Amino acid sequence: MLTPDIARRFVSFWPLQIGGWTLYALATAITVAPYSHTSTEVLGIVAELGSSFLASFFLYFLCRYLWRKGVPLFRALSFCAVVSYALGVACTIASRLTQMHGSDSTLTFDWRFALTEAISVCVTLEGWSAFYFGIKHYQTVGQQKARLLAAEATARDAQLLALHYQLQPHFFFNTLNAISSLVVSNQPLLATEMIARLAALLRNTLSFPDTHTVTLRDELAVVDEYLTIERIRFGSRLRVSVDVSDEANDAQVPRFLLQPLIENAIRHAIAPSSSGGEIIISARLAEQRLQIDVANDTCELEAASTHQSHGVGLANTRARLRQIYGAHNATLVLSGETGRFMASLQLPLITEPVMSSSTAG
Q1: Is the dihedral of CA 265, 269, 271, 275 positive or negative?
Q2: Residue 193 domain-assigned (yes or no)
Q3: What is the pTM assigned to this prediction?
Q4: Average pLDDT of the residues in 137-152
């Protein structure tokens, strides 16, 4: 049974292959029709067309291999030109041998004729190669555009989800109560700071720039706004440690990537514990990939794992990673041991922002 990928290639390849060579054969027939040709010459033309058609299949596998290997276009076309000439010589030889076999008169084989005539076949096959790479480029651009459109939709979902985290009654009213307590206890500076942090956090959540990604440094700044509010709420029960290399700080990550992980750590590990716990955020580069780890103390590993494995925020995060980086290029792995839970992200190293589809278009 054909896989969907093979079936798609089958459907797209054969109509173009058959249709293209049929049109080429008709154009050749129209070109040679005004001139009188012997049956031997016609037989040679037909044999050359047939052998060229068969040679294009060999060229198809070669072009597909070069495309998958990511060979630069000029180098790929140059290599195909050399192969096309070799195939052209083979086609010319096949055409001449067919003429010799089907002719009553005595025909001789001339290598100079074969090498010269091979140029026309080479041009045809090289044009076939250029057409193949052109179609592949067009398909790739279409896939990238579709991926950007899907990423924009999921990014908007993530924005709304992040806003939901801030405005849910559990968080919002606790924050307001904390502010009220600070005012009543005559701590206006802390109350003012908490209001400013809350305003900044909501402003960052509501903003939507023309990129799907930001630097890790900017992402951590948003996380810090959130953690500052939570530090005021939990006091010494919440401890945070950040260990991020300078190179990792400049890497691009999806917006609001870390907040669901931090939110889950606080909700399922810090808040239920009377002694609180520590959240450790670390990031580093390894083999052209960005590794981000968010670890937290927990006394109930199984419960925390269950909550964090099936949360809406993590499902949304995984969906965004698939849309932005592809199905297998980015991973989110949850693991734990006694007293510690960790969420590990591995992303391709990107230093330029991923633009939204409206901006890219």
Answers
A1: negative
A2: no
A3: 0.54
A4: 81
